[in-house]
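Troubleshooting entry. Yesterday's outputs looked truncated, so today I'm pasting the complete records for two proteins to confirm everything comes through intact. If either block looks cut off, that's the bug. Protein one:
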Amino acid sequence: MRDPRLQTLAKNIIGYSLDVQSGEKVLVEMIGSEREFVVCLVEEIYARGGQPYIELTDPSVRSAMLQSATKEQIEHWAEMDLKRMKDMSCYIGVRAGENVSEMSDVPEAQMKLYDMYYRKPVHMEQRVKKTRWVVMRYPNASMAQLANMSTTKFEDFYFSVCNLDYAKMSLAMDPLQALMNRTDRVRIISPGTDISFSIKDIGSVKCCGRRNIPDGEVYTAPIRDSINGTITYNTPSVHSGVTFENISFRFENGKIVEATSSDTRRINEVLDTDDGARHIGEFSIGFNPHILTPMKDTLFDEKIDGSLHFTPGQAYEQADNGNRSAIHWDLVLIQRPEYGGGEIYFDDVLIRKDGRFVIPELEGLNPEHLK
C-alpha cells in the first residue's frame, strides 16, 4: 500500500507543476536511496501519457568520482548527459541523500571543475532554460534531523508545506509581481545590513509550485552594477557539502569586494569561480507561511516566511540582468523580529517590516491569508 500523501504529491507535480502531456519525455533523477516516491512519479507520468526516464544517483559514489576526475572526463560526462537533457521535455530532481555534507571532502578545485564543465552546461544552461523542471527534497530522517524534528513530525510538516494550495498562493502574488515590475529603487535594512540597488525594467517572476516544491517567492534581479552597501545573512547555508555561517558581503558598484564568513578563505574561493560569481543574479522575497526556521536546505530556507534571498551568480533569463556564472547560491536573510527584524523599501516606500507586508495591496501574502 503506497503512502497516499506521496501519491498526492506525485499527482500535483506531474499534473500541476509540470502539466505533463501525452508523449512528453520526463527525466526523474533521484539523488539518494528512496524508491517508493519514484514509483509514484512513474505511475503518474504514465497516467498522463508521458514517458518516464529514471536516473538513480548516490551522493557518496559521486563524491568518490569527483575526487580525481579530470576536466576532460567531466566534459565528456557533461556531453553525454547534455544530449539526454536536450531530448527531455521535463525534469524532476528529488534530493533524498542521507548526509548533507557528503560532498564536503571533495577539493574545492574539483568542485569548480564540476560546476563549470558539468553543472553549468547541463543544468544552468539547458535544464533551467529549456525544459519544464521541478526540484525538491524527500522527507527522510536526515532532513528531519536538520529541522530538529522527529521523523514523523517532519513528515507531517513536509506534506503540509509541499501539498499547499499553490493556485491560491499564485493569485495572492499578483500584486507583488506588479509592484516589482514598476519599482526602480530597493533598499534593505537589517542588523549588519544596509544595501541599495535598482530593479528597474528587469521584470519579476512568481514562484508558485511550478519549479520548486516547496515554493512561495517572487524574484527579480538587481541591475548588475547598481548594488552598493553591505548585507549580512543570518541563515546557515551549505555549498558543496560545506556549511557556511555569518556570511557578509560588501558591494561597490555591483561587485562583492569583501566577503567574510565562518570560513572566509573557502567562501572567497567559491566567489572566485568566475567573474559572475562576485555579482548578484537574483533578488527574491519569500513568504511560505509554513516554513519558519532554517534547516540548511535551500529549497526550504529560501521560502521562509519573512525572508529574502540575494544570490551571487547566474541570473535567470526570465528576470535577467545579464549576469552569467557557474554559481547560483541562494543566501537567505530572515527579517522577522526573532531574527533581528528589518525593512524593505521600494522607491522609498516601506513595503515590509519585520517580515510582514505593511501596504494594503500586499497584505494577502501575510501568513494568516495563505494557510
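Protein two, checking that the full record survives here as well:
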Amino acid sequence: MTTAPSTPEAILLVGGKGTRLRPMTVNTPKPMVPAAGVPFLTHQLARARAAGVEHIVLATSYLAEVFEPYFGDGSSLGLHLEYVTEEEPLGTGGAIRNVAARLRSGPDDPVLIFNGDILTGLDIGALVDTHRSTGADVSLHLTRVTDPRAYGLVPTDATGRVTAFLEKPQTAEQIVTDQINAGAYVFNRSVIDAIPADRSVSVERETFPGLLAAGAHLQGMVDSTYWLDLGTPQAFVRGSADLVLGRAPSPAVPGRCGDRLVLDSAFVARDAKLTGGTVIGPRARVGAGARIDGSTVLAGAVVEEGAQVSDSLIGARARIGARTVLQGAVVGDGALVGPDNELRDGVRVWCGADIPAGALRFSSDQ
C-alpha cells in the first residue's frame, strides 16, 4: 500500500477578468497586480510553498500570456509550476476539471484548490489534516464574518460536516450562520475527475450542492484568522497595506514589515510622509511635502509635491499633480491627474485619462 504524500499538490484559479478591480485590471490580470511590492499571486505561491506544496497548476484565462513569462517553471520559489489556459470561460468547477490531466495524484489523494483573489492566513496544513482525519470527499475553509449577507452561507453540524449551501440571505431569518465559503478547498482527485468536462461549471452552485444531495461527505473547517477578498480596489489597497504592516502573513513581502515599503529605484523626498502600510513601487517618485497613507503607488508613477493621498491605488506610470487630494480613489495606468484636483469616495480614473489642473473638486456637501 502506498502512503499519501504529506502535502498534496494544488490548483490555483487565476482566470478571472477582475471586473470589479478595473481600471487596474485593464492591462494586468488581477493576480498579477502588485500587492506589497510583488504580484499578489506571489504571496499565494509563497504561502503554499511554506506549507510544503511543491507542484501547482495554474488555471489561467484572462491575459493568460502574462503568468508564465514572470514565474517560469516556479523554481525560483522552490515550486514546479504548470499552466493551463481556458479557451472559453469554464467557471470555477470547469476550470478545476480543465487542469485535471496535469495532476499527479491518484483517485483517493487530496488536491488543494485556491481562489486567486483571496488573501488569507489560513493554516493550510490544518485544512489538509482535517480532510484526511474526517475521511471527507471535499473539505472547505470556512470563515466567520460579521455581516454575511454578501456571501453564500455554509452551515455545519456539531462535527463540522456541511449540512447545506445557502445563497446570499435576503432577510434576518435566512441568516442561520455566520460561516461563509472562504475560497480554499481540498478535493479528493476522484471528485475532480467527476466534474463534467468542456462546459462551464460552478463549484458553488452546482458541484457542492450536487455532492451534498448525493450523500457525499463535505467537511468544513472554520479558520477565522486574517481573510480578505481582494475583488474591489478598496479591498486590494487594504490587503496590500495589511501585508506591509504585518497584519496579513506572507513570506514574500520584499522587506521588513512596517509603516511603509519603498522598493529599490524609487525616490521619496526627504520631507514626504508615508504611513499606514503605503507601498512605493520601483522607479516611482514622491515629491516634497507629499503625504501618502495606506496607499499603493505602482511602478514609475509620480506623486508631485504637496499631494495628499490616502487609501488609494495609483497605477503604473500615472502622475498625480501638485497639491491634488486623493481619498479612496483609483487612478489607472498612465493617467494624468493635474494639480489642485480633489478625488474622493471611490472615484476611478481610467487608464491614460488626462484631468486638467483644478478640473475636479469634491466636497461632502455637494
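Both blocks look complete. Sanity check on protein two: The chain is about 15% helix and 25% strand.
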